[in-house]
Design brief:
- The longest helix has 29 residues.
- This protein is of the alpha/beta class.
- The chain has 2 domains: 95 residues, Orthogonal Bundle (Arc Repressor Mutant, subunit A), CATH 1.10.10; 242 residues, Vaccinia Virus protein VP39 (Rossmann fold, 3-Layer(aba) Sandwich), CATH 3.40.50.
- Helix 9 runs parallel beside helix 11.
- Helix 13 links the parallel strand 6 and strand 7.
Length: 368
């Protein structure tokens, strides 16, 4: 359906009313099915379907997991109707399975395409609708900890699979001399470290380096501390920058910021702090959402634009406006041109987009 200008005085066309109603309820179908995907992940239904690698009746699937068969039947009917689960209509019963692509997206946490992180925290994200009307009135949003512990888990599950597969073999070697520098021993900071996956990964791979992860989420920092203890990594630590800020004495060799600058209340100030923390030959790796310069271009080229603007209202922009006067960049608020402009204002002189393929993010190497 066209979103271009129309004659607003024209009486509604009955056929177009039906088409518009279908459009609206297709959005509701997506929201409801997203809830069913959350249940499939939470209850282990996808994991079990992937594990057996054969067609099962809904009763067989329910029995394997100790679930009530009628509930599983209705759930899997939704999944098959949505073309998520494959169905085979045998003469004696319908049987269901996950195709090979569905298995990696829905059930394989080791695969970089695993996609259940956002669905893990879906209830917390949607629950923000209870408080957002007041944000629209006051202008003040809510930080990530408003989503509770499961919000931190969901973010961790969203980014760990790709990071596990690509951070060490692909991303770090894309910057000249960086792996050698980390091997010899470097001081590293990971801004917005979340549950600590990238920081611990770098510390483990480069034991002569010292890595400090910074985050303001107490739930994420608790998970990072637990993970550090489990993996017995001694050359990494985690700090809340409000109590123990980033050093601004030019002592760091390498700083990373994965998917967090657009969420920050004062991103320009943070960029300035990053510049002051780095040695004159230091490197800042900025990773942020791919974005375009104008809304018109975004609508035309980004098929996920509506999803990303909606997530921004419920999560990213809300975080970025969680204090009065917050910058409010939002999910699609840091295109390359804006990132470059802000980096220059912070005192950086070299800015290079790295040739790294990612469905969601752009990667920038920024140097003093």
């Amino acid at each position: 359906m066209s979103t271009g200008p129309t004659d607003l005085g024209t009486p509604p066309d009955p056929d177009k009313v039906r088409m518009f109603s279908f459009l609206i309820f297709s959005k509701l179908e997506g929201a409801v099915t997203a809830g069913m995907i959350h249940l499939g992940d939470r209850l282990g239904l996808y994991t079990e379907l992937a594990r057996v690698e054969q067609y099962l009746t809904s009763d067989e699937l329910a029995a394997r997991l100790g679930l009530h068969p009628r509930w599983v039947q209705e759930w899997i009917h939704n999944q098959a109707a949505a073309r998520i689960v494959e169905v085979r209509h045998d003469t004696d019963a319908d049987r269901y399975a996950l195709g090979p692509e569905a298995r990696v997206v829905l059930a394989d946490e080791s695969h970089p395409a695993f996609g259940m992180g956002m669905f893990h925290r879906l209830p917390q994200t949607m629950n923000s609708l209870q408080v957002l009307p007041e944000s629209f009135r006051t202008g003040v949003g809510h930080d990530y900890d408003s989503h509770g512990p499961d919000g931190a888990v969901g973010i961790e599950r969203s980014f760990e699979p790709w990071s596990r597969s690509h951070l060490l073999p692909t991303v770090l070697p894309s910057m000249d001399g960086l792996p050698e520098r980390l091997t010899a021993g470097a001081r590293v900071a990971d801004i917005g470290c979340g549950a600590g996956g990238a920081a611990i990964r770098m510390a483990s791979a480069f034991p002569n380096s010292h890595v400090v992860g910074y985050d303001i989420s107490r739930f994420a920092l608790e998970r990072a501390a637990d993970r550090k203890a489990r993996e017995s990594v001694s050359n990494v630590e985690f700090r809340d920058p409000r109590r123990d800020p980033l050093p601004e004495d030019g002592s760091l060799d390498f700083v990373t910021a994965f998917d967090c600058i657009h969420d920050m209340t004062h991103p320009q100030e943070v960029m300035g702090s990053i510049r002051r923390s780095l040695k004159d030959d230091g490197i800042w790796l900025l990773v942020d959402i791919k974005a375009l310069d104008t809304f018109e271009e975004t609508m035309r080229k980004n098929p996920m634009a509506s999803l990303m603007y909606g997530i921004s209202v419920m999560s990213c922009m809300s975080s970025a406006m969680s204090v009065p006067g917050g910058a409010g960049l939002g999910t699609l608020g840091l295109p390359e041109s804006k990132a470059r402009e802000m980096a220059v204002e912070a005192g950086f002189t070299r800015f290079r987009r790295l040739d790294i393929e990612h469905s969601l993010n752009a990667f920038y190497e920024i140097r003093p």
